[in-house]
Design goal:
It is a single chain. With 213 residues, the protein is mostly helical. The chain has one domain. Helices cover 53% and strands 0% of the residues. It is built from 11 helices and no strands. Helix 4 packs across helix 8. It is globular, with a radius of gyration of 18 Å.
């Protein structure tokens, strides 16, 4: 990972993002949030064609787009996509993403079946595995503001998601040294909330300590 990128992934910037996210007006409190029910249900399920289709349908129940299960080779495409969920579940720290060829293949197979959408695929992955973050246009918008340099920005495609996932996991590893309760969901949701109200407070790079001769 770029050392320049790492300069942004600090506990201080996590606190800044959390403070910025709190500036956003929350949704009406009487809205029922089914997220925890979905998570409790799918974390106990084994990857299978049936469970993949159920998870895809649940994910699209909170998206404006209609679900389209796409197949190139009929049921074999869905079978392959359900099998790669075990690859997704094996990723818990940033170092687990070193085998990019296998992971890109897995992400591509899943994305191609679920509306050919990385947003939809990320929501399905998150239902099966807490350490797979969700990406969507709101997350990407605040992410690209936070990491303002062009080379740091991400797209809603497989390679963009892979970069996003690696950085989220790495940042979590930095933060949990002092705050062990912080989850991938905590970090990802900060970007989601913050997208509604970009703060004038920019992220700060980690200061370099000067050597003394």
């Amino acid at each position: 990972m770029s050392t320049v990128f790492e300069d942004y992934l600090t506990e201080e910037n996590f606190k800044t993002m959390r403070a910025n996210a709190r500036l956003v007006k929350k949704e009406k409190k009487n809205i029922w949030d089914a997220y925890t029910y979905f998570k409790d249900f799918f974390k106990k399920k084994k990857p299978s064609v049936n469970n993949l289709i159920l998870a895809s349908s649940v994910s699209y129940s909170w998206m404006p787009t209609m679900l389209d299960i796409r197949t190139k080779k009929g049921i074999r495409s869905i079978n392959k996509a359900s099998e790669v969920l075990s690859v997704i579940r094996s990723i818990n720290i940033s170092a687990d993403l070193n085998d990019t060829i296998t992971i890109i293949k897995a992400l591509t197979q899943l994305k191609e079946v679920i509306n050919n959408s990385m947003v939809g695929a990320s929501k399905v992955m998150h239902l099966f595995h807490d350490n797979a973050p969700i990406i969507d246009s709101r997350v990407r918008r605040s992410w690209n503001w936070f990491f303002s340099k062009k080379e740091f920005k991400i797209k809603e495609d497989v390679k963009g998601y892979l970069k996003y996932w690696e950085i989220i996991l790495f940042w979590q590893e930095v933060i949990i040294r002092k705050k062990p309760e912080v989850t991938v969901r905590d970090i990802e949701k900060l970007f989601f909330d913050f997208a509604r109200h970009p703060s004038v407070t920019p992220p700060r790079k980690k200061s370099k300590s000067k050597s003394v001769n």
